[in-house]
């Protein structure tokens, strides 16, 4: 289905918007990025927070004083984790339909997904691709604690359950969206990778991170989807660029100087036909959004993309394997600034495509 899909500078959004109406959210998406629309997360609703939205289904999931944790010391935890793996195996071996399991999104926590699928059916023009997203396994497993207050990433059994839950929920999204007969893109949001290598991640090896990545990416590939890894700050880009991800998504506005340090990895990544999502439209600081315009961001992108010329890629070649995106989601912004981000993303894409193709 994905064939030799090339983004050719098309605009793409990251995931969240600061509104409380899913119909309004999809209206904005279809207005600004109709070529590759996506379902939207609305973090104004607690159940649609980046972590909370994808936790349901984990064994031992509990809540105390408004905070989720995995109750590894609970009397039923061993039974819970056994049931989890029994259900997982029944899906993998084809004994149980994925739709009838814990490994799916539900309207209670992902209302936007279901509204999105209904709206896509009625579009007069078929999109070039569709996008979905999920919190990545490393971020999910380092953001939730066990009964002792320790990140569940350090519990191998629970970490493995997180990876398998994310893998099947990602695969399920791709399977559902594949019904529209266009390429399906899914981004794994890995905000936690910004802290990789710091004291907060003591004891976590690159190999462990890679193992997490490969299992979830493989689940996407098995369903015919394209897998992206999104990090909205700095990271050890070698771990991501050496993975089997099809797309790397980064904050090109603020962190390109760090990204380009991995030039050999970038060259191999692009040469293999894979794609870069340039977060060239700022979202982190309101003052940056206010001061920029489409022309200034076009020039910013060109200046940075030209730094790939010594690697053997001219601007046209780079854009052919690039998406133009905001640096991150806009869920924490005011609606005026968020709308400007959407508008700038579309305008920058239009200008670059007109100039280079």
Strand count: 8
User: Strand sequence of the main sheet, in spatial order?
Assistant: 3-4-5-6-7-8
Q: Could you tell me how far the N terminus lies from the C terminus, measured between alpha carbons in angstroms?
A: 24 Å
Computed CA radius of gyration, to the nearest angstrom: 20 Å
Sheet having the most strands: 6 strands, parallel
Low-confidence runs: none
Binned strand content: 5-15%
Average of the residue pLDDT scores:
95
Report the total helices: 13
Overall shape: globular
- What's the SSE pattern? HEEHHEHHEHEHEHHEHHHEH
Structural class: alpha/beta
Verbal overview:
- The protein is an alpha/beta fold and 357 residues long.
- The chain is built from 13 helices and 8 strands.
- The protein has helices at residues 22-32, 77-92, 111-121, 137-143, 156-177, 206-222, 237-241, 252-259, 263-271, 286-291, 294-305, 315-320, 335-356; strands at 61-64, 67-70, 130-135, 184-189, 226-231, 247-250, 275-281, 322-326.
- The strands form 2 sheets. It has a 6-stranded parallel beta sheet. Strands 1-2 form a two-stranded antiparallel sheet.
- Helix 5 (156-177) packs parallel to helix 6 (206-222).
- It is globular and about 65 Å long.
Helix and strand topology:
Layout: H1 22-32, E1 61-64, E2 67-70, H2 77-92, H3 111-121, E3 130-135, H4 137-143, H5 156-177, E4 184-189, H6 206-222, E5 226-231, H7 237-241, E6 247-250, H8 252-259, H9 263-271, E7 275-281, H10 286-291, H11 294-305, H12 315-320, E8 322-326, H13 335-356
Parallel strand pairs: 3-4, 4-5, 5-6, 6-7, 7-8
Antiparallel strand pairs: 1-2
Helix pairs in contact: 1-3, 2-5, 4-5, 5-6, 11-13
């Amino acid at each position: 289905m994905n064939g030799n899909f090339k983004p050719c500078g098309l605009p793409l959004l990251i995931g969240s918007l600061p509104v409380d109406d899913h119909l309004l959210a999809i209206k904005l998406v279809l207005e600004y990025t109709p070529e590759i629309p996506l379902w939207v997360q609305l973090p104004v609703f607690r159940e649609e927070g980046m972590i909370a939205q994808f936790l349901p289904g984990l064994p031992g999931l509990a809540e105390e004083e408004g905070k989720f944790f995995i109750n590894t010391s609970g009397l039923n935890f061993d039974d819970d984790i056994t049931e989890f793996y029994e259900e997982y195996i029944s899906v993998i071996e084809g004994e149980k339909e994925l739709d009838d399991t814990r490994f799916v999104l539900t309207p209670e926590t992902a209302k936007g997904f279901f509204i999105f699928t209904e709206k896509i059916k009625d579009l007069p023009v078929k999109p070039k691709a569709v996008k979905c997203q999920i919190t990545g396994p490393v971020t999910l497993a380092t953001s939730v604690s066990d009964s002792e207050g320790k990140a569940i990433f350090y519990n191998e059994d629970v970490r493995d359950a997180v990876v398998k839950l994310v893998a099947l929920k990602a695969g399920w999204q791709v399977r559902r969206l594949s019904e529209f007969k266009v390429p399906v893109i899914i981004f794994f949001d890995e905000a936690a990778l910004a802290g990789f290598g710091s004291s907060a991640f003591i004891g976590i090896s690159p190999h462990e991170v890679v193992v997490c990545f490969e299992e979830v990416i493989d689940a996407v590939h098995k369903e015919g989807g394209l897998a992206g890894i999104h990090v909205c700050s700095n990271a050890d880009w070698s771990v991501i660029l050496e993975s089997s991800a099809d797309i790397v998504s980064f904050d090109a506005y603020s962190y390109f100087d760090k990204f380009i340090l991995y030039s050999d990895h970038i060259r191999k990544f692009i040469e293999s036909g894979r794609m870069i999502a340039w977060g060239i439209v700022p979202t982190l600081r309101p003052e940056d959004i206010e001061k920029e315009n489409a022309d200034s961001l076009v020039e910013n992108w060109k200046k940075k993309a030209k730094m790939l010329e010594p690697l053997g890629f001219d601007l046209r070649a780079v854009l052919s394997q690039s998406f133009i995106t905001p640096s991150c989601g806009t869920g924490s912004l005011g609606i005026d600034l968020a709308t400007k981000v959407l508008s700038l993303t579309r305008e920058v894409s239009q200008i670059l495509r007109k100039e280079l193709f």
